[in-house]
């Protein structure tokens, strides 16, 4: 739709600012199970105009209410009572989380219109597979998967609200601080049900720095000085973590992980239902979020392919939510981006090309690393590539099934296979911190499993007789790839896995060069 297209053109910063502002005008209300929507809205309207609202299920029915004016919240807060402390004593922290109850519960015969509840989680894979089998092409299967898994408008609002509620705590100590989501909540690649990564940002304090430059004298705050930025981060997070733990309504299982490479506080935010990770401002992570946001906006195939590959990897146990030696979703996403840069013509530009398009405002040097790239999407020329998603999916499996991981690394700055700077099995350059490998955690067995699965998938897609499978009511196309392979053709799979070891990988690559000559031609022509 046109509205969607114009929304697409907003810069990352504009979208963030808008959403953070919207979250500040928002409250969350726990509702009784038999709710008269009209009555609730009438009551709220007495405090100011309600701009939008939706209901969702999470330990009962909840309403997210966005007011037009921030002042309506203060008006509502003035009218709200404190829970009577009969068996529990309460911590008198007044937040934007309320409980709405009806003094005289609605009698049975009152006409109730059933509430529309916005789903906050995606359907299980087996239900997805059934839906996919009804599609008419693999491309439509991939768009169906994208639609089922991607964050909804409502879910994004809830994520920003969770950040805004944490910010209310931070502001008790640091009045100009903000709490912003980063990573999958904002980069267009978030899946329903994923955690919310958020960070505490004091950067806005930079605005004051320029004020005193003119004139013959200078004034600055007296502030506590500590030997390292890391120690300051740890202390701030420790106190805010305690605060959430002791006073935060609905903040449970607060864990302070202060000795990690990036210190953080993990907690579960029960009112919104999110698992949250709070850290202190990380500008480079924000640049990565924006880079992916740009790639995701440039072409609709980008997101459809990433969501598909990530779902495929999860089904086959290539990724895991627990940290370990397997490939992360971030690494997989970067592999898809690299593959799209390598197409002919390329579907997305390299990071160096985006840097060349950067204007003055886009210049960012962070900790000595150049993180500049264009933020205005209109300056980026659309691709001339017209390959369908069906083709791209098969080619992705083929490309990485035959990639020389021993010798080459993946570099999104140049969009080229570059010699590995060191011997990690999988080497993907961090796009900004050029001396880091984002997939350093991946070991050889996990990489080999990925290669085997990619080959198996390429093979299934090539061999497939779609019409026959549809007649036989068998899963076809993408649906066939989302069923664990061991189940239907374990012996074939064993043969393919036989002897996969780093020494034999080369010979295996040769023996598995694709069956028919035409596809061999394709492989050579690349």
Automatic annotation (TrEMBL):
Mark the transmembrane ranges.
Answer: none
Q: Name a single GO biological process.
A: RNA 3'-end processing
Indicate the segments forming the RL domain, all copies.
11-79
Q: Do the record's keywords include Transferase? A: yes
Cite the GO molecular-function annotations of the record: metal ion binding; poly(A) RNA polymerase activity
**Which cofactors are reported in the record for this sequence?**
Mn(2+); Mg(2+)
Name under which the protein is recorded: PAPD1 protein
Species this protein is from: Cardinalis cardinalis (Northern cardinal)
Gene, per the UniProt record: Mtpap
